From TrEMBL:
GO cellular component: plasma membrane
Coiled coil is among the record's keywords: no
Low complexity: compositionally biased ranges: 460-494
Name of the protein: non-specific protein-tyrosine kinase
GO molecular function: ATP binding; identical protein binding; non-membrane spanning protein tyrosine kinase activity
Transmembrane parts of this sequence: 12-34, 178-195
Domain AAA: 275-396
Pfam families (UniProt xref): AAA_31, Wzz
Keywords: ATP-binding, Cell inner membrane, Cell membrane, Kinase, Membrane, Nucleotide-binding, Transferase, Transmembrane, Transmembrane helix, Tyrosine-protein kinase
Biased composition (Polar residues): 574-583
UniProt region (Disordered), positions on chain: 460-583
Location of this chain's protein in the cell: Cell inner membrane
InterPro entries named in the record: AAA_dom (IPR025669), Bact_polysacc_biosynth/exp (IPR050445), LPS_length_determ_N (IPR003856), P-loop_NTPase (IPR027417), Wzc-like_C (IPR005702)
Length: 583
């Protein structure tokens, strides 16, 4: 590991270092406050011998004294002297062993001086013990050094300095302890952070995603706090990091296959709560911003969440269409965003996998492909259920999401394996909820565009589109409308949209009409839901054990001021009837 790797770890896991440091400092401070103060009293002893008149005798006497100093330090710390000191002071509450543990004797090299220190909780008793101990040692040394025949002692010890009453405790040393706690906490925190990073098996960079999936990363979505309150991005007003990330994703999708770009796209993940629904909603919005007609299919028939982001979508939806209890035209619903439609989940069926794997599900997806430029499918996660793998087989492919710091490598590899096992194509991967700060983790632009030009065609294109073959002309434009089951008034005729060229790809130009302003890349046009004439009260049908209620038309407080535009219809063939597949 290099230095910047450690810096990255510390920046990503600074909380571990901070918590460990705080705990260590508090522990050191607490230990210091709980420790009983100890006072130390010191005395100094001088050792000498009787010397002769010659230089040689003086030298031998000094050498003898230095040898005696080593032995005397051992005697000063012994229990014999401690007991004699206690007897002299009359301290019965202290044992000789305990007092010996309080005594420390040391000598300065090449000298005949001995320093004695005695510690105690009381400064006065520490002083008394040190002085009494020194006096008793003088007597003890005289007894030991006096010959048996009664001659003069060979060595003599005198107290050179008596102890004074200490004014401050020697322990605890609070400042030193806190400093040591700080140092230990920082070092221990760094070690734990590095260890935690080594043991962390979650995905944190795009290289890991590319290696596991075998495909490129089409988008890196940063985590913005605003998305927690309002998941759907208003791209007309948004210049945030996540808005630009979705615009980059839109561009990357268009270049996955230049000749035949994917149009029916499944958005899924390994496990729940990894950002798949938020990504699907905003991917549909950013495609609609570029002038494309987009339908968002809520194919998670177990835990639908699109309603949470786009508001109430009615009780009928995809499950009702697949169960043949509702027509697709009746449940396709416009949104308040230009060019974006929604096919809600509908009632929650007991057999989602069977419905999504039916032949009718393939027909519904193909029907939507013929009506819209893009079909974005919000699918369930791959590991708990097989619904997403089934849907990917009838779509052009899947975008697989990995959540930064949550999705593990094993989970992501298993999700990719589930798709590969059924020969479902993986169009690309998305690294979602990445931190917005930090080296190697924040959203980084792979390319930079001065303005987003990847969506709309030139303004003169509608005129050229009129020369297309009538057999491929699409009836209607993808704009908000009432459900197809509701008949329009005789005076309100559908507005024709641009024709589909011979290559099978629909132009993205808006209809040349005064009623609807043309979308562009430089400005995103927002309009509220239109008001439609009230629909007749539908009859109540049954879906399983639950009654099915056909959806009602959207309404607003403003009166209808322009022609009603019906939902996009299938392309028509030369005989004028609807065709099941695109030409």
């Amino acid at each position: 590991m290099e230095v910047h790797d450690y810096l990255r770890i510390l920046q990503a896991r600074w909380k571990i270092v901070a918590v460990t440091t705080v705990v260590a400092v508090l522990a050191a401070l607490g230990a210091s406050l709980l420790t009983t103060p100890q006072y130390e009293a010191k005395t100094r002893l001088f050792v000498s011998t009787s010397s002769g008149a010659s230089v040689q005798e003086i030298y031998q006497g000094n050498l003898f004294s230095q040898q005696r100093v080593t032995s005397y330090t051992e005697l000063l710390e012994g229990t014999t002297l401690a007991q004699r000191t206690l007897d002299k002071l009359g301290l019965g509450d202290l044992s000789a062993v305990a007092l010996a543990g309080k005594v420390t004797a040391s000598s300065t090299p090449d000298t005949v001086l001995i320093d004695t220190a005695v510690t105690d909780e009381s400064p006065e008793r520490a002083r008394d013990l040190a002085n009494a101990l020194s006096d008793e040692f003088v007597v003890m040394a005289r007894e030991l050094e006096t010959p048996e025949d009664g001659g003069p002692p060979t060595a003599r010890v005198v107290v050179e300095q008596y102890a004074a009453t200490p004014s401050s405790p020697v322990t605890p040393k609070t400042t030193r302890n806190v400093a040591l706690g700080l140092a230990v906490g920082v070092l221990l925190g760094i070690a734990l952070a590095v260890l935690r990073d080594r043991l962390d098996n979650t995905i944190k960079d795009r290289n890991a995603v590319e290696d596991l999936a075998g495909t490129g990363v089409v988008g890196v979505i940063p985590l913005e706090k605003a998305r927690q309150e309002e998941p759907a991005i208003m791209f007309a007003e948004a210049n945030s990091g996540d808005a630009e990330a979705y615009r980059e994703m839109r561009t990357n999708l268009q270049f996955l296959e230049v000749d035949n770009p994917p149009r029916a796209i499944v958005v899924t993940s390994s496990l729940p709560s990894e950002g798949k629904t938020t990504t699907a909603v905003n991917l549909a919005l950013v495609l609609a911003e570029a002038g494309h007609s987009v339908v968002l299919v809520e194919a998670d028939l177990r835990r639908p969440r699109v309603t949470k982001y786009l508001g109430s979508l009615g009780d009928a939806g995809l499950s009702n269409v697949l169960a043949h209890t509702a027509a697709l035209e009746d449940v396709l619903q416009p949104t308040r965003f230009d060019g974006m439609w929604v096919l809600a989940a509908g009632g929650l069926p007991p057999n989602p996998s069977e419905l999504l794997g039916s032949a009718h599900a393939r027909e519904v997806i193909e029907d939507l492909r013929s009506r819209f430029d893009y079909v974005i499918i919000d699918a369930p996660p791959l590991l708990p259920v097989t619904d997403a793998a089934i849907l990917t087989n009838i779509a052009d492919g899947a975008l697989l999401i990995a959540r930064y710091g949550k999705t593990t490598r094993e989970q992501f590899a298993r999700a990719v394996g589930n798709l590969r096992s059924v020969n479902a194509p993986v169009l690309g991967t998305i690294l979602a909820m990445t931190p917005t700060k930090g080296r190697g983790t924040a959203y980084e632009y792979r390319y930079y565009y001065s303005s987003d030009k990847d969506g709309a065609a030139p303004a003169a294109a509608p005129a050229a589109a009129q020369t297309s073959t009538p057999a491929t002309q699409r009836v209607g434009a993808p704009a908000p409308t009432a459900p197809a089951a509701q008949p329009a008034p005789q005076t309100q005729a559908p507005v024709e949209g641009p024709a589909r060229p011979q290559n099978g790809h629909r132009h993205v130009e808006p209809p040349a009409t005064q009623a609807y302003p043309a979308p562009s890349n430089d400005a995103y046009h927002y309009r509220a839901a239109e008001q439609f004439p009230p629909a007749p009260q539908p009859a109540t049908e049954r879906y399983g054990s639950e009654p099915y209620q056909a959806p009602q038309a959207y309404s607003s407080a403003e009166p209808l001021s322009r022609p009603v535009v019906h939902a996009p219809r299938r392309p028509v063939n030369d005989s004028g009837s609807e065709s099941g597949e695109e030409r």
